[in-house]
Design a protein that fits this description.
This protein is α/β, with parallel strands linked by helices. Helices cover 31% and strands 24% of the residues. Strands 2-1-3-4-5-6 form a six-stranded mixed beta sheet. The longest helix is centred in the N-terminal third of the chain and has 16 residues, at 47-62.
């Protein structure tokens, strides 16, 4: 069975992507499964560049086909912020609560609706060329957190066509409409 390294330590992400790629009959191993540390600096200016950086560094170290992704929240009224800085919007030591608080503070000066989208760039790399795919989940930001499923900005984000936040959706529904799901479904076709 072919092995693919997923350049992440996030077990939730790994489960989601394993499910999408299961028909390929590949074994996905994550950085959490490997007992070596690798420090990847995301120095790109786009989600795709950061995903490529992760994939290349992991491939170069282990010489095993690698998938990687980078994703975040893009808010229209904030000229695309937090964007590639989504995970560290409130600073390097920030967390989900601090990031959400900063986002709501930044949006105070703008009228509703606060249109936004989650974007994911997924990459597959075998040492020669990059195969890339992107996915988006459009929606809007609300002013109070709702729901306990999910993480990050999910409690503030209502996906287009829904009246509940991503954090209020059952995980299987959220996963089926998510930006990551859309990107990896496209990537799967390229890997095949």
């Amino acid at each position: 069975m072919k092995k693919i390294i997923f350049a992440t330590k996030n077990k939730g992400k790994v489960r989601e992507v394993e499910d999408i790629l299961k028909e390929l009959h590949v074994k996905i191993i994550s950085l959490a499964d490997i007992n070596e540390s690798i420090d990847i600096e995301e120095t790109g200016s786009t989600f795709e560049e950061n995903a490529k950086i992760k994939a290349k560094q992991v491939y170069d170290k282990f010489k095993i086909p690698t998938i990687a992704d980078d994703s975040g929240l893009v808010v229209e009224q904030l000229n695309g912020a937090p964007g590639i800085y989504s995970a560290r919007y409130a600073g390097e030591d920030g967390n989900d609560a601090a990031n959400n608080k900063k986002l709501l503070k930044e949006l105070e000066k703008f009228p509703e609706p606060h249109l936004a989208k989650f974007v994911c760039a997924a990459v597959y790399y075998e040492g020669k060329e990059f195969h890339t795919a992107t996915g988006e989940m459009k929606g809007r930001i609300i002013h109070e957190e709702r729901g306990t499923n999910g993480f990050g900005y999910d409690p503030l984000f209502i996906p287009e066509g829904y009246d509940v936040t991503s954090a209020e959706l059952p995980p299987e529904v959220k996963n089926s409409i998510s930006h990551r799901h859309k990107a990896f479904v496209k990537l799967k076709e390229m890997i095949e």
